[in-house]
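Study this:
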Amino acid sequence: MKFKNNLNDPSNRLWSWNHNNTNCCHWYGVLCHNLTSHLLQLHLHTSDSAFYHDAYHYRFYHRFDEEAYRRWSFGGEISPCLADLKHLNYLDLSANAFLGEGMSIPSFLGTMTSLTHLNLSYTGFYGKIPPQIGNLSNLVYLDLSYIPSQIGNLSNLVYLGLGSYDFEPLLPENVEWVSSMWKLEYLDLKCTLPHYNEPSLLNFSSLQTIDLSGTRTIRTSLGNLTCLVELDLSANQLEGTIPTSLGNLTSLVKLQLSRNQLEGTIPTSLGNLTSLVRLDLSYNQLEGTIPTSLANLCNLMEIDFSYLKLNQQVNELLEILAPCISHGLTALAVQSSRLSGNLTDHIGAFKNIDTLLFSNNSIGGALPRSFGKLSSLTYLDLSINKFSGNPFESLRSLSKMSSLQIDGNNFQGVVKEDDLANLTSLMEFHASGNNFTLKVGPKWLPNFQLSYLDVTSWQLGPNFPSWIQSQNQLQHFGLSNTGILDSIPTWFWEALSQVLYLNLSHNHIHGEIGTTLKNPISIQTIDLSSNHLCGKLPYLSSDVFQLDLSSNSFSESMNNFLCNDQDEPMQLKILNLASNNLSGEIPDCWMNWTFLADVNLQSNHFVGNLPQSMGIFPTSLKKNKKLISLDLGENNLSGSIPTWVGEKLLNVKILRLRSNSFAGLISNEICQMSLLQVLDVAQNNLSGNIPSCFSNLSAMTLKNQISVLLWLKGRGDEYRNILGLVTSIDLSSNKLLGEIPREITDLNGLNFLNLSHNQLIGPIGNMGLLQSIDFSRNQLSGEIPPTISNLSFLSMLDLSYNHLKGKIPTGTQLQTFDASSIIGNNLCGPPLPINCSSNGKTHSYEGSHGHGVNWFFVSATIGFVVGFWIVIAPLLICRSWRYAYFHFLDHVWFKLQSFRS
């Protein structure tokens, strides 16, 4: 009872330990001697496998419910009174949470000399293991895995587990202590293995199991381990080929070599390991086809060949496995291994398989009818391949199917109620990026309960699917681009109150949301973008951390949204309200949103100064140390850009303030934003000189994955996956004065520089590695520097309408540009049709002949004006046309992205 009082038992597993129940031999976890009633064993282990979503995730993906685990495991302290149990020989406290600063393994355990079995693995203890543990001479089983380990001589050990991924090796340099354990049958060292040259630790004829996973370097051979049953060398830095000598370990049942740098082909000698049950070679550089000798491994139950370079036809792989292996195989994973070809009827021979993972390959064709024979199939992943046809013709009978992933293929067809009727065990359904149409009756109720649903790009509309009401276990809900033309029904938010991820974007959903995103909603990510939602912005639950309402018709002020009194701190990190009809001033309530990292308010109708909580900018942003992207472009914001933006927002990589009414100077404090990758303050009223401190923007070459709209060549280009390669400074269309500072043109990592439409003077200096230069419509003078011809990656140049003179430098790039990029100067030479005279005179080139009317530009101007009023003006005037046009563009972009994927 003293021992219990020192424990934390959140799940009340020790309810039977009480004074009313005096026979402690009947207590939970207690085992006594049949005759003497001496307490012999304490089993207080917490099994973590129950807290994985299921066996599939435990085996392959390790999706662990840590919160539920914490609510079940023991914690607190281990009382010294435990040493009073003089007959205790078995103590298992593993996989519990005895966490605390500096909490180490109690030294009194070294006095419990009757112990033969001690398991303290995964208990959260910290620090070196007390040397007293070495006094436990009767120990046969010792597991101290995931604890930094240093122990003494324990010659009777049969099982030794010291695995630890979290700490530096603490084993002594002299490893003879391991050699003294001549009875050892199980050895688990993981990354506690010390560095030594020729150890004898593996020269054990009795060893049956070796787990050296995560040791990073192994400098020893396996020796003559004829009794070896299990060998785990995964997660090391093993290089070279798989030794053929592995084929001599004919007693092996499990062989795991995953997550290394092994190369070459899979040796045919592995076909000698006829006792193998599990073979895992995944995450290596192995290439070539699977050797036919593996057909001899008739006892195989689990195979993982994922993330290899097989370059093999999938039917060839199945033909090797089918004759002998197929009857007992339960798991086959060959993901991202360059498989091609079509599945054949050989797949029907794998009647006991429960897990089949073929994702991210190039397998095509329709699923064979024999798929329907896989009655044990529970987890199927065929995503990101080239499959076609209607898979439900083959899958409709698989009643044990729990997880079905067929997203990212060319599947198509009509899916009816009967096709889904037998899938009664289905919990995860990943089917986005195909061309399905779901045709079910208005009263259809599925026979399954899903936790994950993504049917993006299916045709479900026009009405909102009412069968969603029956899915009360959903956590991930994706119905993007499904042709819904309806409003969100009143029952929707209450029925899906347990959902964590919601995506209804790219539909035609209309109506108002009102207060429905308030409690009891627990959704963390909400994407309702690219719809026709209107009215006021909704109130928000404090649980939401990502909200995208962009490209809708929300109107009025943001005041109620931002300034609503909250009972709990708002967790929102990402907010996208771009392209709506929001108006008025931006409210002064940003201090309530301290976790915001990315805010997009562009393309609305805001007016006036930014609020005091922004300090013109929101002052609350000063506290957002993790802010990466700040985009306030295309509004009507005024005032100056405060100096604290550069002083406080030191993690910002993208600062976009274009198309506002900001005035004043560009402060030197901007240069303190050393991580800045994109600076866009174009189309404002900024004045003064360009700061000469831009050389401090040292991280211009750092990569990131944030999407931003860069205005180059007079048009917007959206950089998504390639933004990590893009750096840009755009100061165009302001009132900047003075010379172009050398520090900005010397930025070797800068790709795009736009200083056009200012009042800059002086010469053009040398350039870095620019790909786009626009200095047009300034008052620059002097000659074009010869070094500009060295910019081999220059794809855009505009120096027009300045006071430049002299000969245009010759080079591989400069003469390829159109003459319009250099007109309005006193220049000569190609690409201008003006020869440089021998007396050094130059000419002003304004058109094709330098005088008179340039009818080409006249006609071009007329054509532009007519085209603008025919095509663009209706989009500006008619909102419904504008929505339809941009929805069309979104649809084309989505198709292109899907094709590219």
Summary: The two ends are 62 Å apart (CA to CA). The longest helix spans residues 855-877. DSSP finds 13 helices and 55 strands in the chain. The first strand starts at residue 7 and ends at 8.
